[in-house]
Amino acid sequence: MARSVIEIKNIIITAKNNEASLAVYVSPSATALFNLWAYIVALAIWTLEVIFDNHKTEINTKIENLIPGTLRWYHAMCLLFQYGDQLSWVNGKFIYQVPDAGKMIVKRVAIREVAGQLRIKVCKEAAGVPVALTNQELISFKSYMSQVKFAGTNMNIISYNACSAKFTLNLVFDPLVLTAAGANISDGIEVVKIALENYLKAIVYGGVINRTKLIDAIQNVPGVVDVYIADFKVKEAAAAVWSTITDQNYESIAGYYQLDTLTLNSSANV
């Protein structure tokens, strides 16, 4: 990381003062000749260090993004998919002749290597909310990935509707601020439910529901004294029944979540 101009100048001045033949040149004036030369040299050194820093950052970025076959590379390739366009073989790789951001429908990607297989989850977006690809879009995307992937790579590509979650919370609330339903007394807004929904929306695509973080999100609501998760159930899009989750973390197959039902067992803090 580049040092500041002042830091470099101070090093130069210190070196000057340690040199017996130059130590006699002392002046409080910022425009003294030796001060001006020290500043000019320091500025030149600082400029060179900034150039080196920028060059290093540029090279590292290119290395991270352009080395094919890494998880980061596969992530980037997923986002470059153009629905409805044909790939062309150019300079030893498949590319789109005309990049078109309007056709790049994949907006959320989560990739993990599991037992020698790449598990790839993808989604579109609608109003900022993840949405599963249609069957035709998913078929097209799988065809695209089969062409751009490394030979021999085993991939499991999915795009599901959101995992539904329902919670039963034991809530201790301040009756001066909240109702037993978790709503503000002042305006009737269901702030406890909103906090839970916002927590689920904020989970990074492909991430997990963490009990501690969920409780923290609820406890940040003004008027919440204490909260405990009494029951936590999920149902994936393809599942026929609800599953009870007792683990600290839950990672959905879909990669994202939506609140189905919130039940509050409330007691006032009196």
Low-confidence stretches: none
Terminal CA distance: 57 Å
Radius of gyration: 29 Å
Instruction: Count every beta strand, where a strand is a DSSP E run of 2 or more residues.
Output: 12
Q: What does the oligomeric state look like here? A: single chain
Shape: flat
- Annotation field: number of helices: 6
Fraction of residues in helices?
25-40%
Order of helices and strands: HHHEEEEEHEEHEHEEEE
**What's the mean pLDDT score?**
90
Q: What is the domain total for the residues?
A: 3
The profile of the biggest β sheet is:
4 strands, mixed
Backbone structural class: alpha+beta
Strand content bin: 25-35%
Question: What would you note in describing this structure?
Answer:
The protein has 270 residues and is α+β, with helices and mostly antiparallel strands. Helices cover 34% and strands 27% of the residues. The chain contains six helices and twelve strands. It has helices at 5-17, 33-66, 71-79, 135-148, 191-202, 211-219, and strands at 88-90, 93-95, 108-114, 117-126, 129-131, 155-158, 163-173, 208-210, 224-235, 243-244, 249-251, 257-268. Strands 3, 4, 5 and 6 form a four-stranded mixed β-sheet that branches. α1 crosses α2 and α5 packs across α6 (211-219). The longest helix is centred in the first third of the chain and has 34 residues, at 33-66. The mean pLDDT is 90.
